[in-house]
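Q: I'm writing up a methods section and want to include an example of the input and output format. Could you take the sequence below and give the corresponding predicted structure tokens, formatted cleanly so I can copy it straight into the document?
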Amino acid sequence: MRRPSTAPLRSAWAWLQQWFSGYPGWVGGVLAGVQAALGPYLAVTILAMAVIASDPGPTTIDGIPWGSAFTVATTVFLMAHGVPAVTSIGTITLLPLGLTVLSAAAMVGLARRFATRTWTSWSLAVASYVAMVGVIGSIALGGQPEGGSLIVRACTVAALIAAPAAAAGIWRAHGAEFAWLTQLPAWVLRGARRATATLAWALGLASVTALVFAVVGRGAVADAATGLGVDGVGGVVLAIGELAYAPTIIVWMLAWLTGQGFSVGLGSAYAPGELAAGALPEVPLLGVLPDVAGGWLVWVPLALVAVAAAVRLASRRRGALTWDDAKADAVALGLVAVGGLAVLAMAAGAIGPGRLAESVGADLIPTTTALAGLVLGGYLAATGVLALKDAWVRWRAGRGERQEAAERAATDASAAEEVTTPS
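A: Here is the clean output for your methods example:
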């Protein structure tokens, strides 16, 4: 039996590539923005439809309309763009950071694939993403009293997500040169890189901490998941859905590492030196929250000092310390404070009624101040080590010069004695 020829498919694919290549480069920006918005939205929709399809009763077709999957997907998608969700149990304002990060990652990948190295392509990628979010928000919120302000909020957050993500994708694919960067002092750029590395490693340490508590609290997670009584498909969907809030847990662990901790409801406190846990919703992900405090854990914030010191040592400039190094540290410290405040703010909000309607997340100002203070301590410790090293090098160099001078003086003295001594 002859196998069917794939020549027609190859010809069609070649024609499609040629057809697309004939369009101007800005089309790629539009495609990147539209796909980056629709991809995460459709992913959430598919999960919602899977939950409906897994219903074992007769309500799958008659009682639960398939259109509710799009309603749930729209609500979750807009939550990732800063729009609160009003439910029967209360208002939820806590961002599903996982979906927000997924949207940004989708924009990076698609801009890298489709966008060109032009400001027009970048602008259209951002504008098309914002437009798609605006269309989805208009359909869902257009009839609400405050729908207009909520749509504006969603579009603003969408622009904040898409602009840096599209720029990162274009830079990864084509590289980029910004003339204004060359006009900045070198210590400003060095400080910006130092701040980025410090925040990245601090969040990495928070991820490891969350993983440790997840292993320790795996029993509580399993009990909570079993208590929900979900089936196999529902369990998979629940696990994937909880990934949307996994980055939120990581940010909470960053607050925990600062020593200030965080709360999950009024009256609760999770910190290395204090633990006051209140009643929590039956959500398996909350089983990874810390269940110990005190003792040696009060020294946990020193881990952030070590991270900051390691970054400062790794990013040191060759040569002796100068005032430019102090200026770079100041820039890095300021950017760490601003970035830390933004990250902590995205992991704070309400997750239900009553005590869960407030005090969920970290207290922003004290936690940001503690983070900046710990990073400053790390930078100062590393600077002190570098200063001692420079002093040691100078002392060794001076000692060597003194020894050489003494040897030359002794040689000159012996030579002079030989000349003056009569034969």
